Amino acid sequence: MKQFDPLHDPGPVPSPCINVCRMNAATGLCEGCLRTIDEIVRWGGAADEEKRAVWVEIARRQEALFE
Could you tell me which of 61, 60, 52, 58 has the C-alpha nearest to residue 14? Predict the structure, then answer.
């Protein structure tokens, strides 16, 4: 997954999508980007503030799932 610091990186917020688009039924998360289906659907129309909040949540999920 791309490294992006939502609290410190200025400018446009990149998509966390890495083109591994498979939803995990057990977690409800995409196996590639760790977003929920609702987060994925809303991404295109979301303001940067909402996108940054999603990135914060992704970091939290990474820690919970992989560390």
Answer: 52
Q: What element of type H or E holds 24?
A: strand 23-24
Print the domain residue range for 49: 23-66
Nearest to 18 by CA among 5, 6, 34, 29: 34
Kindly report the pTM of this predicted structure. 0.89
In the 8-state DSSP scheme, what is residue 47?
-
Residue 40 resides in a domain: yes
Beta carbons of 22 and 31 less than 8 angstroms apart: yes
Q: What is the mean pLDDT of each run of 10 residues along the chain (67 residues)?
A: 79 95 98 98 97 96 91
d(CA 2, CA 40): 16
